Amino acid sequence: MEEKSYREAVLHYAAETYGTTPEYLWKRTPNYAVLRNQASRKWYGAVIDISRKTLGLPGEGIVDILDIKCSPVMIGSLLEQEGYLPAYHMNKNSWITVLLDGTVPLEQVKSLLDLSYQQTEPKPRKAKGRGEW
What we know:
The chain has helices at 3-18, 72-78, 106-119, and strands at residues 33-36, 43-51, 62-69, 84-86, 95-99. With 133 residues, it is an alpha+beta fold. The model has no long low-confidence stretch (mean pLDDT 90). It starts with a helix and ends in a 14-residue tail after the last helix. Strands 1-2-3-5-4 form a 5-stranded antiparallel beta sheet. The protein has a single domain, classed as Aspartate Aminotransferase, domain 1 (Alpha-Beta Complex), CATH 3.90.1150.30.
């Protein structure tokens, strides 16, 4: 699968699964798409195109990446695998970057996007109990 189609596949999956319309928030970077959980208004993903050089990757040109929210324990194990990098432009303790160049299988990317979405779900409110007198 071509790199562009990975980007499109991720955006399509987010739309079909979560009803997410990508938000393009910055004029200077018109291809940066933010995926927001509509219930909590929190970001659960960002699809970005960036130079390989900026990411410290070999080769020339631009690569698409996906920044996703992730547990710190999972981040540690994912960073040991090819296709994962410390979060680009996000908190490295709770976000990770996934290359969308075919290095990571699309089904795995979708599963990680699901986990990220779940982490941004609104927390259930605790009922305020009445104190005993």
